[in-house]
Amino acid sequence: MSKKQIIMESALELFAKQGFEATSVQQITEHSGISKGAFYLSFKSKDELIMALIDQFMMQFISDIDHIVNDPNNSGEELLVKFFYTTFYSFQKHSDFAKIFIKEQAHTFNEELISKGRHFDQLIDDITLSMLDQLYGETIQHTKYDLIYCIKGFMHVYSHLFLFFNVPLDLDLLCRSLAEKTELLAKHSTIPFITDELYEMFRKTGHEEMTAGQIIEIMEQKIEELEDSIEKESLVLLKQDVQELSLSPAIVKGLITNIRNNPHCSWIAFLLLNYYEV
Hints:
By secondary structure, this protein is mostly helical. Helix content is about 75%, strand content about 0%. Helix 7 packs across helix 8 (about 145-165).
């Protein structure tokens, strides 16, 4: 395990007990057994460490649900069940950090944290909308944005039940119940509230597209971390193409497929699929 990862895991333990504000760099270095010098070689500040933890959590969460939605083997109510299952399993698996993230979002005045939360929220919207289009197509043309907010409401409220109230969790029952509710709303809702114009207004607030340069920076870091493999070779070729745009769409899609099932590359695959719009 790298020093950077040791610092992140130690900080997460302390943040879970004390929150972001009450935890100092000194406490983190003492808890991790790493010097302050080594800390500042990995992170410029505590705020940068916090952002790295949020990125790690949300990137994994988003790439997991994106993988479910874009798997051609998933369809109908089964897709809804798997979508909710992946959502709640992720919150359950990372419950300590999920609690911190939710609490800090509710009370923070940190603009960077607020902006990052909005950015990831919009990515979740995009994936959810893609799923709804697959399942219902034109039949929900006027209610699809309301459905997105209903689904996010389910995710938010029900996650609180087991994160903060220790309600016993039958994950399979919960996901089947929410899939049924979503089906009923999709098939029988007729009065929309959120219009196209209103939804676009929401999206413009704090919207931030990732640039090619930022994607290349993430790819370079991952290339350094990976051992020699087909995933590493594919990333090298994809990085070159983001810079030069010389490969055909079919080759690009094949290279992204090569990295997509590697859990360490799933976030990069998600970014590239959106960047190339394939």
